[in-house]
């Protein structure tokens, strides 16, 4: 028996096929067919017991390669004399072999063609009752490796390793980590430990709070809020400046009299208002100019120039406000002179100098009034135009995604 | 990542300093009865101007772009404000020094000259441009992309490495 086993084993070793080729179109045999394949070696072993000499060759053709047949014949004709020392080793190896028989059977079933099918069909009828008694063989994963090295099934890795995920250049490397009982949740600047069970229960609330997440403020929202708030201030400044400039020039012309005949009256009545008026005018012009620049998005010079060439209202208003600002600042010295009319009457206002000093001042004030009035009208035609707001809205914001259930750690 | 609350506080401080600067520029000439008042106002204005610059630089250093090493990207984006703020600071200090030197002995006298008027006009005009650019920059620093990794940042990083 042992010699027969040795024979079987030796023949088995030589009969192991190389890498299976699917040119014949054979598929993996099912469990049932595996059982029949497994039963074939046992039946052969039994037959080998009965016919140790030659007939096993006929059975082995279903299992072996064609080129090995001659060698097998020589082996069968010269039976090996088993040595007593080799018996226990053979038995141990036999046990290992039995584990790999399934594997070999599958490989053999792949490699050998119709002969194996015929052998299976003949043995199916005989071995069908034995199927129920047979233990369910574990599904053996076929490997493309040649099993010359007595590799055990446990050492065979069937699943390919998952590729190492590519992580971003700046983010921390991702990898499998051991799960811990606690989670660390960020609250403000600190991390607080929390049980995973609690978080899992709270995950149901996250779905309902998802809409609340989008209502959370971001830095972009703060910027937009500040910008819209200043736009309201700017709108008020535009209107107030236009009205105040109009009132100012009307007062100047009324106090000056017809054809500027009563300039001394103007100086006497207006000297206390000149410097505060100048200061207020600068304040309103600064606010209005910044607001007009915001609407134009002056920082984008190319877009601003294109808007100006296209004679867009926001661009024209910005230009008018800036020109009015420069003209108003240029009259600072004259305004201070008017302010100091009572105290420095003889030095600052020699007789006959009122016309030469006040004509330009009145003219500039009139020009400033017309400019700011026209700019206010231009802005009123397109009050919703705001290129800076569009630029701020283009800042991307990623809202935190709700954790999916599949991603929740177990 | 910059939090909205922190950003709101910083923005509030910046706008407060800007508002103070605007009011000093507008009404400091009305408070010249005593030269000390104007001197104190000018000193506070210049210090607030410097403080505003420090806050702006700190906001830049707080960005992820700066921490990665792409300082040139930030400087290119905000170079207008950086240059104008330095120019405005120069004009302000020059005008304040000149004005105080003229008004220290005679506060309520006429001290204007053509040169002083030109410098005064330049300083007030630069102030308006400074207010606009600083407000816009402060709002742009609320861009969330400056505080996190993103594809455009990686592309910029690769380009800088190739250079």
Q: Can you tell me about this structure?
A:
The complex is a heterodimer of chains A (410) and B (163). Chain A contains 16 helices and 2 strands. With 410 residues, chain A is mainly α. Chain A has a domain of 176 residues. Chain A has a two-stranded antiparallel ribbon. In chain A, a hairpin with a 2-residue loop joins strand 1 and strand 2. Chain A is elongated and about 125 Å long. With 163 residues, chain B is mostly helical. Chain B has one domain. Chain B has 7 helices and no strands. The longest helix of chain B has 27 residues. Chain A: Pfam families: TMEM237. Chain A: It is found in: Cell projection, Cilium; Membrane.
The gist of it:
Chain A is mainly alpha-helical and 410 residues long. Chain A has helices at 2-15, 31-50, 56-60, 69-77, 86-111, 114-133, 196-208, 210-214, 219-256, 263-296, 301-309, 313-330, 332-339, 345-348, 354-381, 387-393; strands at 182-187, 190-195.
What is the fold's blueprint, element by element?
The complex is a heterodimer of chains A (410) and B (163).
Chain A (H helix, E strand, L loop, with lengths): L1 H14 L15 H20 L5 H5 L8 H9 L8 H26 L2 H20 L48 E6 L2 E6 H13 L1 H5 L4 H38 L6 H34 L4 H9 L3 H18 L1 H8 L5 H4 L5 H28 L5 H7 L17
Antiparallel strand pairs in A: 1-2
Helix pairs in contact in A: 1-5, 2-5, 2-6, 9-10, 9-15, 10-12, 10-13, 11-12, 12-15
Chain B lengths: L3 H24 L7 H27 L2 H5 L2 H7 L1 H25 L10 H27 L10 H12 L1
Protein name (chain B): Transmembrane protein 138
Membrane topology (chain B): Multi-pass membrane protein
GO biological process, one term (chain B): cell projection organization
